[in-house]
Fold:
Amino acid sequence: MTTEETPVISVQARDLVKRFGAFTAVDRISFSVSRGEIMGFLGPNGAGKSTTIRILCGLLRPTSGSVRVAGYDVATDADALRQHIGYMSQKFSLYDDLRVAENLRFFGGLYSVPRNLIDERIESAIQMAGLAGHEHDITGTLAGGWKQRLALGCAVLHRPSILFLDEPTSGVDPISRRTFWDLIHDLAASGVTVIVSTHYMDEAEYCNHLALINRGRIVALGSPGELKTHLRRGTLLLVKCQPLGPALEALERNPDVLEAAVFGNALHLVVRDAERAIVSIPQFLAEHHVQTIELKEIPPSLEDVFVELASAPSAADEPRAP
Amino acid sequence: MRASISRSPPLEIAEAIAPAVRAEGLVKRFPGVIAVDHLNLEVHPGEIFGLVGPDGAGKTTTMRMLAGVLSPDEGSTTIAGFDVVRDPEGVKNHISYMSQRFGLYEDLTVAENIRFYADLFGLGRREREEHAARLLKAAGMAEFRDRLAGKLSGGMKQKLGLTCALIHRPSVLLLDEPTTGVDPVSRRDFWQILYSLLRENVTILISTAYLDEAERCSRLALLFKGRVMLCDSPDELKRRMPGTVLIVPSTRAREVREVLADAEGVSSSVLVGDGVHLVVDDAPGRIAQFRKQLEAASIPFDSIDPGEPSIEDLFVAYVQAQH
Amino acid sequence: MSWSRLIAMARKELIQIRRDPRSLLIALLMPIIMMVLLGYGVSLDAKHIAVYAYDQEGSQDSQALLKHFQASQYFDLVKTVSNYRQLTRAIDSDRCKLGVVIPYDFSKTLRDSGRASVQVIVDGTDDNTANLAMDYARAVIVAYSGAVQLDWMGRQGLAALASSAPISVEARTWFNEDLESRNFIIPGIIALVMALVGALLTSLTISREWERGTMEQLISTPVTAREVMLGKLAPYFGIGMADAVLCFVMGVWWFGVPFRGTILALFLTTTLFLIVILGIGFMISAAIKNQLGASIIALLVTLMPTSMLSGYMFPIDQMPAAVRAITYIVSSRYYVTALKAIFLKGAGIEALAEPLIALTLYAGVVGFFAMRAFKKNLG
Structure:
C-alpha cells in the first residue's frame, strides 16, 4: 500500500447496536478497517467482542446501526456476504479424521470454489502451508504449526476479501507462529483485510490496529505502539528490591503509589509523578529496611493498557451473557 | 546459582535448601511420540516456577507425572520429601493439583464444590468455613456461594478452581495451564492471588502456553518437544540471550523488513503490527548501518531503538542456535 | 479407609443425581412406567375376546349356548351375523377373534342322537390368543353340554342321579385363575427394573467424570479407589432399594399380586442382586470412558439377558437345551426364581438355598473384580 493510494474502506461500522432482550451486548460501536489492514479485537468475555464479530460475519443481525462489509450491507445481504468472507479458528476448523487433501476439498466444496479452479487452489494452499508431500496424511497426526497453516489454507480457498481469525496462534510454538504471521502479512499485502480476535497479547502485537472492546463499547482504538505509549492514570515503574514481601506491603501504603503489584522477581508500581517517585521511593523503602537494587520507568505492556481500560468495575465478573 | 544452557540442565545444588519439587530423568512415551524426554527440574520452596512452552511440548504430561496421576516410564520425582513414583498416594495430602479443566463439577454450587474438596482432604467444618470465606473474599466471589459452577464466567471458574485447590493449604501447588482461554483481566486477578500466596511460602509450579506469562514467574523452564531448553529467571535468560533486540517502527514495515532481513548481523526479523522487530548481533554501529541502508532505499521509518527481548525472542534465538 | 471421604463422594453423587433430570427419570419414572406397561399390557391371558355368532337355527337351545358364551368373562358376544361371508370377513378384518357357527339342525340332532357339533372358527394369526380362545371356547361348550345333560337327566326322571354331582367339567388350565399369569410376571418385573436402573445409572458414574474432565483432578487427591467406588455406588444402592420397594408396593397393592413370603427374604435376595448389578455397572463405567458407550454396553449386558433369559416371562424349561445352559450364568435368573418363590410360594430362606448361594457367589466374584476395575492412574 503506497501513500499515493487512498485506502479503500473494507469494513465500516457506524453506531452499531445489538440487544438481546433487555441486555445490550453492543452499545454503539463505530470503526472502520481499510483494505489490507490487520485489525485486532480484544476484550474480556461477554464484552461484546464475539457478538460484534458475528455481526460482521453475517451470522447475527444488528439491532440498529449500519455495518458494511466488503461493500455488502450486513443486515440485508448476509448470504451474499458469506462468499467473500473466510473464517479460521485454530482449534475448531479441521476434521481430524480426514486427510489433508480431503479437508481442502471439503472446504472448497463448501465455499463453491469453481470446479475448474479447485485443483489449482488446493495445490497452492498445500504449498503455502508447506505440506507438499503430506497431502495424504491424516490431519489429526499433523503437528500444531502445520494444522494451523492448513486451516488457513482451507479458509482462503475461495479467495475471500475479508479474513476472520479466532485466536489463530495461541499455544503454537513461536517459530510456527512467525511463519503463520508472515503468511498473514502476505495476504494483507495482496489486499485481504484481516480481522483477528484474541486474548493473547503476543498475538495482538502482530496487528496493525487494535480495538479494545469492553462492556459493549470501544474503549481504545490505535496501533499497538500508540496504545502502549502511556497509561492514563500514571507512569509505570519497575522496582527491584530486597526483601520483596515487606516492600510490597510498605508501598501499598505509600500515598504517591497508585498501585503496587508483584511481577516476577520485582514490583511494578503505578505512580502519578514519576520524577518525584524515582527520588522518594528508595528513601521510603530504606526507612522500611528494604534495599533498592534498581528503579526505573518502564513502558506499559499491552496487557497493562488493556487491563487498565477494561477494568471498569467487574467487567469480567458478570455471569455469561445470554 | 547458575544453570548453563544445555539440552537438559544438570541439577543444581541450591544453598543446601532442599528443593520443594525435583524431577530427574522423567520420560513418558505414548504411541508414536516421546512426550517427555529425560526431563530434569528443580523448584525451590516459595517460588513461582513456570513450565513454559507451546502445545505439545510436554507440559501437561509433566504436570500429571508430578501430581502422581500418571506413571512415568523412567525417572523419579520428589515433592515435599515424598517419592511420587513409588508412593503416589503419600504425596497427595500435601499438594494440590489443578487440572486444565479446573476439576469443577458444573452441576454443583460453588459452596458444594469447595465442601467436596475440603472433605477429600479431611478438613473440619470450621477450618473449611474459615478458609473458604477468606479465599472467596479475596477472589471477589463471596456472593456467588450458591451459584452452580456451570453458570460462572470463565474467569470465575478459574478462581473457583484455585479456591478448591487452596482450601487445605497445600505446601506445593501444581497448576496446569490455569489461564488458557481466560481474558487478560481475569488472568491478572488470578496472578494477584498467586502472588499473595508467596507470603505463605507456598511453592507454585504453573504451566502455560502464554509466553508473556513467563515473565511473571520467579524462574521458568522453557519446554519444547519434551525437553527443557532453558531454565533460569526471566532476567537472567534475557541477559544471556545472544544478540540485542532492535525495534524499527514504520508505516511501511514490510519494506523495512525486506531491506533489513538479510542485512549483515541480523539473526532474525519479524513483522509486528506497526514495525519491524529485529535480533542483531552486538557489533557496534549496526544501528547506523541500518539507518544508512533504509535511507538509501528511501524507506521512511520512525526510529531504530534497542528494546527488551521477549520470551518469544529467547525461544526463537535458542532454537535457531541449535541448528 | 476414610469414612468422611467416602461420605463426601456419596454426597456429591447424590447431589448430581438430584440435579440431573435424566437420572431422575430413569430412577423414579421408569420403574413405574415399566410396571404399568408390562403389568397391564403384557397379559398372557385373554379376556373379552370378541365373538361373532352365526346361528343358523335360532332355536331355544342355540340361543342358550350363545348365552353361555355371553356370560363367560372371556368372551364378548359382539354381533350375530346371517351368513359365512360376514363371519369370515369379520375375522379377516379383526373385528372378532372367534366365530361360532351353530348348524341349522342343532337342537334336532342334539335331541335325537344326544350329540351335536358346533363349529368354532378362530383367528390363528396370534398363536397364543388362538390357543387360549379355543380352550376357553371348549370350556364354555363343555359347560353348556353339562347343563344340557343335567336337563336331559332331569327330564328322564333321573332326578336322583341329577342331584348327585353330575360331571361338571371345569377346564383346569392355568388360565382359569383370574390374572394368574400376571402374578408370575410381575415379581419378575422387579428384576427387570433393578437391572435397568442399577446398571444404566451406575454405568454413567465413572465415565461421566472422565468425559467432563473432573476425574483427572479427583485422582490427584488422597481419596482411594475403594472409597471412590463405594462412595459412588452407595446412592445407587439406595435408589435400587427404593425402586424395589416401589415395585413391590405397586405389585401387591395395585395389581393385587399375592405376597406369601417374608420381607427379610425379599430384602436379602434384592441386596445380593443389587450388589451384582451395581458391580457390573461400575466395571463397565470404569472400562468405557464415555457415557454413551457405557450405557449401551450396560443395556446389552443386563437388560437383554434379563428380559430374555431370566425366566421372568419366557419359562426357562421351555427353552432349547443350549439356551437353558446359558441361563445358568445369567444372575437375574436366580433373582427371578427367588422372587417368584418368595411372592407366590412363600418360600423361606432354606427353600431359597440354590438362588441365594448362586447370588452370593456372583456378588463375591463381581465385587472382587469391581474393586480392581478402577485405578487411580491415567496410564
Summary: Chains A and C do not touch (no CB pair under 8 Å). The radius of gyration of chain A is 23 Å. Chain A has a mean pLDDT of 87.
